[in-house]
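Sequence only, no structure available. Ideas?
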Amino acid sequence: MSYKKKAAAALCAAAAIVMAAASAVTAFAFETVKMDARKDEIVAGKINIVADQVYAKPGEEVKYQVHIAENSGYAGIGVELYYDEKLVPAKLTDIKADMTFEDAVYGMSCDQTINLPKNLIAFTAMSDTDHKAEGALYTVKFTVPADAAAGTKYPLTLKITDIYNESLGKLDYNTVDGWIEVKVPETTTQPTATTAAPTDATVPTATTGKTDETAGPTQTTSLTTVTGELITDVSTVSSTKKTSRDPSKNVTTSANGNNNNNNQHQNNTNKNNNTKTDGVKTGDSGVAVALAALLLAGSSAVIFGRRKKD
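Reply:
I predicted one. Tokens follow.
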């Protein structure tokens, strides 16, 4: 496997570990009971005004809606929403709530106000003609107390101040109150995925040349890869003297040699056909240089061994 491929595999493994190692994951945010699940609270033949039922965690801000269902058509409506005194409403000013008018009142003239001492948010919508749209009338926001205990339920109640059609006739209606209930989120701990990154392959020791019975031990060249760093160790052993090269310094090999004596051989090595590798390198270029040094040292050893034997 090439250095680049090994590096890419290691990066992928690390990314997988980071993504899979998330622990203590909170699996809950505020949750509103869907209107489809509350059909038994709706009264047929009447315009139903319905307040949300919401589960929330302590300290959480909740988006809270009031809906209209079974709408036979109305031209004007006034709705008051009374909230628990421990809930904190979002407001624009001391007399205006932070309210969003929703699709069910699109095209109508709407207004709202908040009465903080009475814990009351009032809403009105008017038009010249009857509107039959259903869904959310408006959205407001409440913050649950940070110290609220699990299971605590904060009631929100509705009161209709007026509802009429385009002929100003009074309409029958039904109100369905709502609540915000505290639900402490469950915390799940996911096991940390352990993926071992690919280990750099170790290049086996290469032995070059032939054993010369009179010259001493076989000349060997070793190239070892340790934890991603290349360390080259070229050792030349002659019949009378062993020369060791420092891996951190440049390695010089020569294809020409003379076996008259060790000093002459050293001089020829320094002067003739010098091939240098500039220190220890990593990456693709480092591997290429190290392998080139290995091959060149091998050929030098073979030629030297043959001339000496001859």
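The chain has a mean pLDDT of 72.
Hope that gets you unstuck.
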